[in-house]
Amino acid sequence: MRIAAAQIVTGEDPQQNLALVEKWTAQAVEAGARLVVFPEAVQRAFGHSLTPIAEPVDGAWGTELRRIAERHGVAIVAGMFTPAQPGEQGRERVTNTLLAVDGAVDGTGNGVLAAYDKIHLYDAFGFQESKTVAPGEAPARFALDGQTLGLATCYDIRFPNLFTAHARAGALATILPASWGAGPGKVDQWRLLARARALDSTQYVIACGQGLPSAAGVEPVEGAPTGVGHSMIVSPTGEVLAEAGEAPELLVADLDADVVTAARQKLPVLANAREIPQV
Questions:
Q1: Is there a catalytic annotation at residue 40?
Q2: Rounded Cα distance, 217 and 72, in Å
Q3: Among the options 30, 64, 137, 154, which is catalytic?
Q4: Is 131 assigned a catalytic role?
Q5: d(Cα 213, Cα 87) in Å, to the nearest integer?
Q6: Is 154 among the catalytic positions?
Q7: What is the pTM assigned to this prediction?
């Protein structure tokens, strides 16, 4: 399966962001991709109000994402925001959702393969995602061309159990859209974590982040996790197959189920793992 990771930089306008999706999907199709992965927060970049644009996955924005997939005959994964129940003291919240759609084969009646609500919220490094975002409760996976693919979002990368759960369910790869917050050492942590999660679970990791706004000529929103670039496609043995710089860029790689099988035979960490008792 040929997969593309489209490292883009989105802004405030959901329609302009869809135009970016259309443009980069066309480029991915020219490169032969069957699946095009976009970052977290494609619908609207962090740092802007999210509740006014939140909508169900079958709303106008998600429907247009599906139509883009249909026009190009590919599957797409992209980050959006869906409505959620209010939080403490009636504070408005959304859910940070990944939407996976397939325009080539519609086995569900509407082209939606899966929707994943981010489980681990980014309450770290001085940012509190939980103030405005409700957490998801369950992992999500989908099948594409006979292969299982897991979903994870940004801060989820720091929690190995989600990745090993996907692997134990037979995942060829975990798709990881992100909008990684900038800061000292953060790029090094991103690189380390992407490789570690691939090794933890002996699967491919498709870590597709927002690019660095300044590298795309976009004014960053101060204090918001608007992306640092360095999207990566990592093999089941931790080899970096492709890595982007800071600016918008398209990465392409071929995923091979036989490579995953061989890695799990040579390094059977999933089979060797034991439950550690609480002490």
A1: yes
A2: 28
A3: 154
A4: no
A5: 30
A6: yes
A7: 0.95
